[in-house]
UniProtKB/TrEMBL annotation:
MF term (GO), any: electron transfer activity
Domain of life: Bacteria
Membrane-related topology note: Multi-pass membrane protein
Protein name in the entry: Cytochrome b561
GO biological process: respiratory electron transport chain
Compartment(s) where it occurs, according to its Swiss-Prot or TrEMBL record: Cell membrane
A Pfam family assignment: Ni_hydr_CYTB
Domain Cytochrome b561 bacterial/Ni-hydrogenase: 25-193
Cofactor or coenzyme needed: heme b
Membrane spanning residue stretches: 31-51, 63-82, 103-124, 162-187
Protein family: Belongs to the cytochrome b561 family.
Keywords: Cell membrane, Electron transport, Heme, Iron, Membrane, Metal-binding, Transmembrane, Transmembrane helix, Transport
A GO-annotated cellular component: plasma membrane
Organism expressing this protein natively: Azoarcus indigens
């Protein structure tokens, strides 16, 4: 004669086959701004790398003008993202340990800092040239005057920040892959639509 099942055992058996708790998702606005900004940054990286291989001429000048315009657009979009983030705090993923959450927070802060410094340094570099500053053909005020020394300084800062940003993006993507391999995918938190939980 079989012994009656205990309530605790029934709960444990039911929980054994249950799906893991759903990861809290970011807001729709945060998701849209994230992917729009990501595409813009990837375009800027691609154009920036291509410019180095172009000979001087109309094609290179057009690429530089587009790079500057998209860079200032990325800066404006970053400010919009920061404003949204202040009003809509990111959801905490309790599947991660305290150390993992702290490292993720530091990584995000570093990304935001470089996403600010890179286009800002580019703008300041262009401000110390004799050429007008244009955004999609529209002349905007510059923060400086023609000066080769300041131009070189901010151009070096822009280049250094850009390469550091590329390295951080690679680490960011690597962390996403590692979380997926460990069975705690974080990508679904930032996917459009319902996403994966």
């Amino acid at each position: 004669m079989s012994s009656p099942a205990l309530p605790g055992r029934e709960a444990a058996a039911a929980g054994a086959g249950a799906a893991p708790p759903a990861a809290p998702r970011y807001s729709g606005g945060a998701i849209a701004l994230h992917w729009l900004h990501a595409l813009l940054v990837l375009a800027l990286i691609g154009i920036g790398l291509a410019m180095g291989e172009m000979p001087k001429g109309a094609e290179r000048s057009a690429a530089i003008a587009l790079h500057k315009s998209l860079g200032l657009l990325a800066l404006a979009l970053l400010l919009l993202r920061l404003g949204w983030r202040l009003r809509h705090r990111p959801p905490v993923d309790n599947r991660l340990g305290a150390l993992e959450r702290k490292l993720a927070g530091l990584g995000h802060r570093a990304l935001y800092l470089l996403l600010l410094l890179t286009p800002l340094a580019g703008y300041l570099s262009s401000s110390f040239t004799p050429y007008p500053m244009r955004v999609f053909g529209i002349v905007i005020p510059k923060a400086g005057w023609p000066d080769e020394g300041w131009n070189a300084l901010f151009n070096a800062l822009h280049t250094g920040c850009a390469w550091t940003l590329i390295g951080l993006i690679a680490l960011h993507l690597g962390a996403v892959v590692l979380h997926a391999l460990s069975g705690r995918s974080v990508l679904g938190r930032m996917l459009p639509g319902r996403g994966r939980r």
